[in-house]
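Posted in: Protein Modeling Q&A

I'm a second-year student putting together a small comparison for a lab meeting, and my supervisor asked me to include a predicted structure for DNA-binding response OmpR family regulator. I've never done this before, so apologies if this is the wrong subforum. The sequence is pasted below exactly as I got it from our records. If anyone can share the structure token output, I'd also love a short note on what stands out.
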Amino acid sequence: MKILVIEDEPAMLENMVSSLKQEQYMVESASTFDLALEKVSLYDYDCILLDITLPDGNGLELLEELKKQQKTDGVIIVSAKDSLDDKIAGLEMGADDYLPKPFHMAELHARVKSVLRRRKFEGNNLLQLQNLQIDLDKHEVQVAGQELTLNRKEYDILLYLATNKDRLVSKTALAEHVWGDYIDQADNYEFIYSQIKNLRKKLKDHCAEIEIQAIYGIGYKLVIV
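Accepted answer (user: helix_wrangler)
Welcome! Here is the predicted structure, written out as tokens:
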């Protein structure tokens, strides 16, 4: 799952990013309105943690931009501005939740998981595809009740393809979602091919009733077999 943290306070930003990374999320950050606007315009996120008060703009304007671009990113407003008007405005503009500062990181994690379950998995924490099951909270995968051991990127790829089952996912979209904006520095997609190859072999060796189809020159699709 890919998360964007928009926060201008350095210490708070560092703590949030570090804590979310420990929960195995792909995390990107932005400390200014302009940088945040660039990121939400170029990339898609599963959840955005949005501070309202930024040094060069109002976070609520970013919500307006997401709406204009018809983005479906989940949004949690995380702000010290605990006024009822701001909360109502944010929720009416499409935010999923509002978390006032200060807060415990455990509560932040719970709010993020709740938004992801509602947005991506219809409120469930288990994703079932034939004989394959993904535990979203534990980041574990089982095939026919037997654990399937995956590395971090293999798990991220499988989860992203699973949430887009039967849809063609371009190599670019997959790379951006799993590797984040670091993908801009890559010369090619060889690192994706390697992870996909290993993941496909593991699924086949465990007799998973799903497979990852390669669409030459375009991307991948996860299908039931």
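A couple of things worth pointing out for your meeting: The chain has a mean pLDDT of 90. The radius of gyration is 18 Å.
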